[in-house]
Amino acid sequence: MKARTNALVFHGGGLCDCSNAFIRTFAQKLNAAYIFNTVYVGFHSFASLLLDENIVEWNDCMNDTAKLRSGGFFGTCRNVDLNEKDNLKKAIETCHEHNIGYVFVAGGDGSARQVAEIADEFLKEKVVFVFIMPLTIDGINGGKSLGLDQAVRKSVMEVNNFVSSTLNTWEGLKPGVAAVELQGRNRDDILANVTRKLNKYGGIQDFERKDIEIFVVPANYHVDKDVLAKRIREAEKPTLVLVSEGSDIKVEDIQGLSDRKTRTMKVGHVSQINGCTDAKDLKKIESICGNLLRIIKDPQYEGKPYSIQLGSFENVRAKPIDYYAKLNPRKNQKATLPEDLEGILKEFLPMP
Question: How confident is the model at residue 313 (pLDDT cuts 50, 70, 90)?
């Protein structure tokens, strides 16, 4: 029975701005529900199962401390594989030493794959893994994730500031070109959402929308370098080129394709922890965590590993533990976008 064991909660994978808010809200609600004897939180992801000092009992004081810290408060750790024999043995020992019967992990597609890979081995030792929430700025195939909205807000802010500085600075009689790389690896979620926001009336700082040319270079669409070069050189307006991290054409390449002064920028890690989690986000997280508890309390899921899928932020469902792992494989993943976001990218692709 759950009431006879303890639970561990941690964030896995790349951090996003609302990681802290989600982990602390879930831990606080889980603790208050008295489902488990003790609720622990882990610091630095899966490494918490290998370092005892990274497992800390959750309480109201820690909740107050977490509220004052940034989104990265709980930390993460890369390149820790619990499939490795020694790591697996140590992690199981850690769970037994702390009487942990359930491990709740929130994170990206890599964390979802790790949980799916190790769940059966832990289940043999009476430790149940649950993947409670996709937390990732990149988005994920199979459902909604938390973290993307904040990354988009920060990216729009950075693009606007860069555009205001660079495209208002002419060289001679020619307006310039600004090329910006947005995070996303092999995904175009941030690129599509940022482009949609900039395309709105008043969406570009210091410019009317009609007075600026925008091209996109996604990771999952082929863009011909010669075509992009031709379109940039033909453009008579200040020109903004938005590039997805992981695309074939890099922002540095665009300097060689342009016949005008071209400045480049990479938004980078500022899109991860950025202070853009607002009151509406916190309310959404409260709602999600409340729905999560209903599933955790449901007797039909007792003792079974599973993943949580959000069809919407109100529609929370339990899926098999390998649900996200299958949809987001380590290699040859084909990231998909909703139809409206696909349409945005197609609208701004440089065409002959």
Answer: low
Residue 135 region, left (φ>0) first, then alpha (ψ -120 to 50), else beta?
beta
CA-CA distance, 296 to 290, in Å (whole number)?
Answer: 10
Residue 211 in 3-state DSSP? helix
Q: How many residues does the chain have?
A: 352
Question: Per DSSP, what are the bridge partners of residue 244?
Answer: 182
Sheet with 262-266, strands from edge to edge, namely 213-217, 239-244, 177-182, 262-266
CB-side exposure of 24: number of CA atoms within 13 Å? 23
Residues 143/149, Cβ–Cβ less than 8 Å: no
CB-based burial label for 31 (10 Å; 0-12, 13-18, 19+): buried
Poorest-confidence range of 200-204, 273-277, 301-305, 316-320? 200-204
Burial category of 217 from C-beta neighbours within 10 Å (exposed 0-12, middle 13-18, buried 19 and up): buried
Kindly report the backbone phi and psi dihedral angles of residue 257, in degrees, each rounded to the nearest multiple of 5, phi listed first: -90, -20
Q: Provide the β-strand partners of residue 266.
A: 181
Q: Which two tokens stand for residue 191?
A: 């690129």
Instruction: Please give the model's pTM, rounded to 2 decimal places.
Output: 0.94
1 pLDDT above the threshold of 70: no
- Six-digit token pair at 58? 């959750």
pLDDT digits (tens, 9 = 90+) for 145-155: 999 999 999 99
